[in-house]
Amino acid sequence: RVVSYNLFWWNVAATNRFEELHNRIKEQMPFDLIGFQECEDVAGTVRNSGLEGFEYFQGPSPNPCPIAWNSQVFERIGEPGSKKVAKDQWGDRYMTWVRLKHLPTGATLLFTNTHGPLSGCGDDLGSEWRSGLVAQRQPGDAVVMTGDFNCPTSTPALQAVQSVLADAYHGGIDHIFTTAGAVAGENRAGYPSDHPLIRGTFALGGPGGAGGSDGVGAQAAGDAGSTTPAPTSAPTS
């Protein structure tokens, strides 16, 4: 199950609605991957949302787009990383990623997340996203990319992403792109965020790529940047 979720952090903080936000995330369980946009504290979000056993990567600021994964289902391969893809009036914009091995099948997966700029959905931005995907994907990897792209589907930026990944599900500017087989998907209410939850279930096969019958769960929300310290785990009790 894969979900893209922009947390609307500044507004939730200003109105003290974090309990509602954490409950919204809890409602989506079980899932195995989650990408965040507008998430200033992924450690606290993972902990307070009850995501026991999840590892996570905050990525750089400003405009962070963290990722988190269930370490009982996915084993991390190497270090997470990030890349600047654009800049707008709010600062640098990034994409984050981590390579994972799906323990039930042995399939490898590149999981990546982004929060696009508020202006400019042209070829330059699309090239940054595409080059990040191509550089980080290893032979045999399936790919899941979540995010608030801040770009309509018809723009050159998203057409560049769609040249390497299928647009499996979207809710306006929030998307889930993948190479894995889509099993099911839906938009869900995201309040107290001003974005919906975009949720999908995808199939991973054995070593060598997508395909097979095992559904994989994921969610998206956040921001990314340059490589930052190694991921940490949420407490299991």
From TrEMBL:
Residues 203-237 are annotated as: Disordered. Signal peptide: none annotated. Residues 203-215 have a biased composition (Gly residues). SUPFAM superfamilies: DNase I-like. Residues 9-195 form the Endonuclease/exonuclease/phosphatase domain. One of its GO terms (molecular function) is catalytic activity. Residues 216-237 have a biased composition (Low complexity). This is Endonuclease/exonuclease/phosphatase domain-containing protein.
